[in-house]
# Entry
Amino acid sequence: MDNILSVLIFFPAIAGLLGFVVDKKSARAYGITVAAIEFLLSLWLWFSFDTGNAGMQFVEMIPLIPDFGVNYYLGVDGISLFIILMTTLMTLIGMVSMSIEKDVKNMIITLLFLEMTMVGVFVALDAIVFYLFWELSLVPMLYIVGAWGGPLRVYAAIKFFLYTFMGSLVMLVGMLFVAYVYHSLTGVWSFAITDWYALVLPVNYQLWLFAAFFLGFAIKVPMFPFHTWLPYAHGQAPTIGSVILAAVLLKMGTYGFVRFSLPMFPDASVMMITPIAVLSIIMIIYTAMVAYAQKDMKQVIAYSSVSHMGIIMIGIFAMNSEGIGGSVFQMLSHGIVSGALFMLVGIIYDRRHTKLMSEFGGLAAVMPKYAVIFGIMLMASVGLPLTIGFVGEFLVLLGFYEISPVMTILAGTSIILGAVYMLSVFKKSFFGPVTKEENKNLKDLTAKETWSLVPLVAIVIWLGVYPKPVLDPINKSVNAMLVFMEEKAITAEAKDIIKVPQSATTVGEVK
Amino acid sequence: MYEAIAFYLFSALTIGLFLITVMSKNVLYAMTSLAAGMVLISGFFFILGADFLGVVQLIVYVGAVMALYSFAMMFFDATRDIKEKNTPASLVFLLGGLSALVLVLMFAGPIHSEAIQALYPMHEGVGNAQDVGIVLFTKYLVPFEVAAVMLLVAMIAGIILAGKKMDQSLTKDTSVDDEDEILKQKDAK
Amino acid sequence: MEGLVYIALFAPFASSLFAALFGMSERKIFVGVVASVLLAISFVASAMLAFYVYGTGHAVHVTMMDWINAGDLRIPFGFVVDQVSVTMMTVVTLVSTIVHIYSIGYMDHDKSFNRFFSYLSAFVFSMMVLVMSDNFAGLFIGWEGVGVCSWLLVGFWYHKPDVSREENPSISPSWAANEAFIMNRIADLGMLIGLFILYWNVGSLQYDEVFAAVPFLDGTVLNAAALALFIGAMGKSAQFPLHTWLTDAMEGPTPVSALIHAATMVTAGVFLVIRANPLFSLTPEVSYFIAALGTFVAFFAASMALVNRDLKRIIAFSTLSQLGYMFAAAGLGAYWIALFHLAAHAFFKALLFLGAGNVMHAMHDELDIFKMGGLKKVMKWTYLYMGIASLALAGIPFFAGFFSKDAIIETAWNEGTIVLWAILVVTAGMTAFYSFRQVFLTFEGDERYKQYGIHPHEMYRYVLIAMSPLAVLAVVAGFGMEGFEHFVTKLLPDYHMSEHTHHIAWILGLVVLVFAVGGIALAYKKYYHGLKRDEKLENSWYYKLLANQYYIPVLYEEFISKPYAMISDAMWNKVDMKIVDATVDGIAKFLYKTGDETRKMQTGNLSNYLNWMAVGAVLFLVVAAISAAAIG
Amino acid sequence: MIGLSHYLIVSAILFSIGLMGVLRRRNLLMLFFATEVMLNAVNIAFAAISHYYNDLTGQMFAFFIIAIAASEVAVGLGILIVLYKKHGSLDLDDLATMRG
# Structure
């Protein structure tokens, strides 16, 4: 299976096309089967992944527009591998847990197309192919929010689409410019990211390009002050939409920073550490406070998502292996935990048709299983050791401490503020007496819900206790990236700040 | 010296005449001054040594175009002053003046002409008409033929538009009118 | 020996999982029994390890597996059983075993009986991870783990509604649980920062590597690291200003208070300081700060205990006060004395709490000592236990507390910190007074409970038997002091009184004793013969100040919680909606409006179009002219 | 001595006059006149450049412009006549039927 990546991309798409002829009643089963096969394929990808190799693997290259160096160029490394796994897993689990009654068949097809674009973004090694999937991913999401959303769905969907689209257009200009510079320096057209990595750009070019890419990625992340589309999108999206949005789509932004901004513009990245860190810290503290003020349970999770993305951002700009590795790990952790939290909110919404916390209270007594799983996810969200949330957050803060202790302390308040809003949600919804009559006879988790959540709980604990199988490949690729970033950096400042771990400099040493 | 005198004379006259064309309320005055201006422009061409162009200018503009205008004016009531709601003069003079100012400023500046190379240089001792002819029928043959076809098309179009059945509207669908009338008749019945 | 380490560590974990299996089902006695047995196994393993370490003097060090490897960071799940950790292990498992057995009786009417055991065992597991870990990250796992278990257990009766602060100072169990968790998180941030400082300066978080490297580090770095770690310790050990959660945590079931909020978890901060003694002994300023803060808290907490009416809160304040003593000792460099006081305190304080639990059980959850009195008739065993514990707490000779507390006070004198010494001595007197005020008000005097229609009864016999080891230890633990010193100073720096102090030791002891006995005598005089309320005193400002905990919880609420909620709300409604989002929408609206306005250019009149075209042409001309001028 | 600039300036002034005409007039016929003025102004510039750079290209352009102007007049006048017949007026304000 040399072309496993193409299979991963196009299997769901083709299956989605075939889905049009599937009977409406069996659409759901069909979707779950396809998603399950896709997940198994991605597992196979992991098992055949050579963990000792830090470079790109399973590379595929087919020329698309040879005159301009546009190739269908795919590959995975330790950084993207697990995000792909998470994508396929969350799609599968999202489908299993899906509670939509209306137009299930269309939803399944949309989700399968969405899966194609998401996998495509994470495996693309050609900027044009990356951009193509990046923009394509907007369409199914637009459709999901706009067709199955709440009362303000059209507003939310259009806001989501236009906002992210605007950012990515600027990014496209940046990409074209990089290709132009590449052409003028080497005489060859190329859109391959791996070729671009070799490009040493002057600092002022780097700054401009960094800004262009930043806009595209930052809106997607979404960084403060570009975050306001997210609460609307989450607030209006159906549960499955929120799950995919929080788990995967936001990761595209942070993944973009790791894949493009850092290795291509090391000097600019180092120069931008302080502004980005300041934005991220504002994002962490400010959105944590906003989350605390929310009355709607889903909005709390939505804003907490933003807050956690801030942690991921500062980790990326820690410029050392601990920070970046921690960030990539935190992407997975946030994907799984926030995805699960959105699913949990969806479950209570299905029962009560409200997400206002004032409508709940005392649910722990009525729905103990639900409360337990919610509690575990909550603890993972606030970064409790031995859950998946801790590893990433710890590494990120540890990594960033080297850059700036003061900012680390400020960013570290996330562990306090996170606890404040999360515990307040838990207290308002689950603790206290059962006051509302409607809540007295709520059904606990059904088998379907349990089976979609239990794997996530298992992963949350497994990766919290034993993150090594995931952390090692990530680390390897991050180290390799740092090595060439340091080599490539022009300014002395950047060379100084980019810190290659000792274990990566001594080649061949096995610890 | 004569060239300078001629230039200034022609300049002053063309500017004056064209101003009349633009400002006059009477179509006849406007057309007359336009024709006169065009004659003077051909004068410029002669000063500049573009004899053939000057002649063409005279024939085409002063001859053909002006004749067309005169015929056209017969359809309109030419003696009457045109009543029109002119655009506010301030805007006109602002824009016109501004463009004149900017253009003049640009053209008054020094012209860097070192880089310019003649693509089709004129030849010493050869008449202008000969030069033009050679270039026109070699390098510009295709555009020339296209222009010829265009003129032909324009001629036919002019004839069709203004020619036969001039008492009938080309835009109104007469058949519809007929139907309307039939309907009206039916209603009347 | 490795096997024993794993047994000691994982028996509580197994117990927790086992109980969790039945977490949502009916009360099953065997769950409690199995949990207690597993805990006892853990205790036996710990005790065997203690003998092994005592006998051989070698520490047992095991590394289970890698946890986090990233960059140069290597964190394994490694466990070390040395003199310090084995002491803690033994104390923790012993007290836990007793508390587990006790809980079978205490929780017998609770429908969440199984869940309780699951949490309780999980707590013990976390605590074992905390004390046994061979690196700071592992310590942090345990540190947070006990925090979560504490959250679960304090909020165990989560179904109780929130009430006003006047009715119940801790509002509700769930409120208290959240408060405890959040306050601990504040401190945990400090602790994390400490870990970061150590990592970036040493390159490792393993105890042995860090402690080997600290002598070579810069003074500022050491001070920062020590201070940051101590902030972590302040949270867990509820030192001022992060102390309010401890008394509120009394909302949890009493066995929880005994185990977590008296004997084990709250001493984790002290344990951290003792564990990191190579670091703290290099930072005299920070250490002195620790000692001073400890002394202050000892006095501060004791003062609040003087007037409190809530049985459990009095004991909680006394815990706080005793933690202050421990920090004072650790800050002054007498690490082994601090550890000894920690162990001794664990025994008698757990006993005291369990006794209080008996009273509570008997009084149907009534905690106001003004409503008790004369309980000795029905509860003589409990009276005996609480009496012993109070004597030990008050520092009456030959009880456990006497030896350890006396040593701490002596240390303060020895270090020449006379102010600290004086405060500690006065506090010793206050301790004696409030302990016996509580004992006398509960067990002696008139039987006030009768007017509330309560029929108290003694606790089950097996519970009382289970408590007996604690009682014995509270009496005799002090006699093991020399052996203990010999044992732990193999690892910890030895601390000896100077010759001079040694000579006047008996005078110092006598002074403390006079204060202690004086306190008891005062309590006897005032409360032994029943409650005589003094309206004037109770209305005086200082009485109210003490009774309201110096108004600190109210201040926190008024100046931190409420403003935070207000600012958060403003951030959402004003900033996020009105500024950030409005800007985005504003841009969109601007574009839309522009389109709407410019649409009016489409008049359909050719002349207007021509005008616009001319405007455009002229603009282009101007631009061209300017750029030409700029280039030329 | 008369230089290229002189011709260009005259051309510019004539062009601006034509532009003013286009702006000012509402009568279609007068608009045609103004357009002719502009076209002729440009022709002067072409001829002048051709002369001063000794290159025939300018004159070529002028020829084609004249050709186009002639065709434009032919077709345009035809349309004007049709319009006049239909509306009885050549005033643009009366012909504003394209309102958006």
Observations:
- The CA atoms of residues 14 and 79 of chain B lie 24 Å apart.
- The longest helix of chain B spans residues 51-75.
- Chain B has two domains: 1-83, 140-189.
